[in-house]
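Figure 6 in text form: structure in, sequence out.
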């Protein structure tokens, strides 16, 4: 367990945020950590949606249970946090 810095590009926000997460956090936990800095401040919540994580520029979401330690991120790498409608 170690702190790991990621840059959050949160959908609907114009500010990139440096977000400290833990190497044992899942992508759902990364999304929640990023949401703290955006939702309710510059981005409105979207009921009926979940937050998903993908690498900057990728079109594929990372698995929700994937841990930071297993994702192969580089320190301060930018991840996109995207709203996805719940099924």
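Output sequence:
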């Amino acid at each position: 367990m170690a702190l790991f810095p990621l840059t959050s590009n949160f959908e609907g926000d114009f500010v990139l945020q440096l977000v400290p997460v833990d190497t044992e956090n899942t992508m759902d936990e990364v999304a929640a950590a990023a949401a703290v800095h955006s939702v309710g401040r510059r981005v409105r919540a979207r009921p009926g949606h979940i937050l998903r994580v993908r690498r900057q520029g990728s079109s594929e979401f990372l698995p929700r249970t994937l841990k930071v330690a297993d994702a192969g991120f580089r320190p301060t790498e930018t991840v996109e946090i995207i709203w996805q409608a719940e099924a």
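Caption detail: The radius of gyration is 12 Å.
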